[in-house]
């Protein structure tokens, strides 16, 4: 079993986010950080087994290190999907035991699996037996009326015994009754010390904390206690923060001096995908949070949102949007 505690990329992870962290988003994020670990959107194991695999789980080679997140609760099917993911070249297979949406509850997977640690262990064991890459689990502290410490420790114990190399813990309970999926991301209180306690109790298990981690200062604070931190919406809505990940978290130079250079580096990929039939909006919708704090940032968003959706929109639309932004250093612009 791979020792994920020794893998530097686990120090900073970009969370799997449905409808957001698609392959275009991940390529753009990879331009901003060479070292962070990226995650796919959650894909149902049945879809991987029977659906259009290239469309669902295909990725660009530059995205590594990259994990495939699966949803499901049937060990044999998850093992098949994990094997397919490994054959595609993913670096890690992650099982979703934390999503509280109605869609996943209907399929008996996601956060509701917090109630069935033995089943999750069976799933992990089947997946770990099917692949040579690390198998991990993303979970919550518990669901509904469960006692968080009891629920979390039962799940962690089960998955480590089954061969999981690591766990990503969203440091909130999920309320499947009474809260929407959106409210579940903010309303239940955070309990970081409980996640830290998991690491203390399981020193050989890689532990990553997730939930409410909004900046790199918070990441550095968590790294005193656990192996890594996972950032979600903060990274998506302000992608320029990712330019600080390599120097501040990994002690390596940033890939580019600023977001302007990163956009220039993204243009060849955009041109290639447009030639393959992609629409510009699909390639640029993940960039709208760029240039926050600079004069012209709002015009950038408005221009890109308006032009990119037009039929036949090309690179000139992206260049026109970027031209709205002042190029002074960010500290001066603010």
Shape: globular
Helix percentage range = 40-55%
Question: How many H/I helical runs?
Answer: 16
State the secondary-structure class: alpha/beta
Strand order of the largest sheet: 1-2-3-4-5-6-7-8
Distance between the termini: 48 Å
- Rg, Cα atoms, Å: 20 Å
Number of domains: 2
For CATH, the homologous superfamily of the largest domain is named as Aldolase class I
Reading the helices and strands in chain order gives EHEHHEHEHHEHEHEHEHHHHHHH
Poorly predicted ranges (pLDDT <50, ≥5 residues)? Answer: none
Structure write-up:
The chain is an alpha/beta fold. It has two domains: 4-249, TIM Barrel (Alpha-Beta Barrel); 259-333, Four Helix Bundle (Hemerythrin (Met), subunit A) (Up-down Bundle). 42% of the residues lie in helices and 13% in strands. It contains 16 helices and eight strands. It has helices spanning 23-32, 45-50, 53-57, 75-88, 102-106, 117-130, 148-162, 192-201, 216-222, 233-237, 245-249, 259-275, 280-284, 297-307, 315-322, 330-333, and strands at residues 12-14, 37-44, 66-71, 92-97, 135-139, 166-170, 206-210, 228-231. An eight-stranded parallel barrel has the order 1-2-3-4-5-6-7-8, surrounded by five helices. The longest helix is centred in the last third of the chain and has 17 residues, at 259-275.
